[in-house]
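Run log, item B.
One chain of 283 residues. Sequence copied directly from the ordering sheet:
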Amino acid sequence: MGKKGVPKILVWRCTRACNFECSYCSFASTKEPAPDELDTKGGLKVVDEISNAGAEWFGLSGGEPLTRKDIFEIISHARDLGLKISLITNGSLVNGKTYDNLVKNEVRTSISLDASETANDLLRGRGKYRIALSAMQKLSKAGILDCLVTTVTNVNYKEVDHVVELGEEYGAKWVVVHNMVPVGNAKEHLQLAPSPEQYEWFWKHLYGLAQKHKDKIDIKVYCPFYARVVREAGMWNFSNWYTNESLGKCTMGGEYISIVENGDVKPCGFNEHLTLGNIKEKS
């Protein structure tokens, strides 16, 4: 927790625009930016608000945040204010000047990857695995690869070993696993949702992987019912883990706040309708 009691990281979903069309995307990203997205001045104000709130980290998500032409102007402002920067990307734009700027600004960069090549590209589109892998290799070499982020579906639920092994090979801090939440694009592709039996197999297998690799890479899970599997597995310090480490709890208690592309402030990353206010109108 920050000194002022706010979350350690505050996230700005800076654009809906994305050059991928992942079938399970919970944000219903679009090819073009939303018409009411904050401009550069608004983006700089987001940074000011996050800094004033006392957060340590400024998180950037999307859409694909690297599609914003002004993204490094905003990042540079955050750095000037002493914020550390975290960004999640599909990897397609991690090259040339963009890559150089990520390195220059020490942006801890996470890559979305769901499986080995065949299954990954079924979910995210042909060629997307090699794009992500190339970005991962470059970020790892520069020492700024943060996490690998994966969403479990019935296409890739037996492929998580591959993601963990890649994370370990390239020095990622975490592998972050989400269950499929039926909002955004995902509500149009419910056939991808794992069955109860597939989920049960997956979470038990993942817990075993977490124990096997715990000295090399940390596996973080955003699914609420993973906690039940962990408890049944007999984790000796379950209460401490659930209180301090589990990411699968509801965020409505104030441990998470997100600002979306138009400045709306939301207490939940999966609820497009619930809004606390807008930073254009109040701090």
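Observations after the first pass:
- The longest helix spans residues 196-212.
- The CA atoms of residues 101 and 191 lie 39 Å apart.
Flagged for discussion on Thursday.
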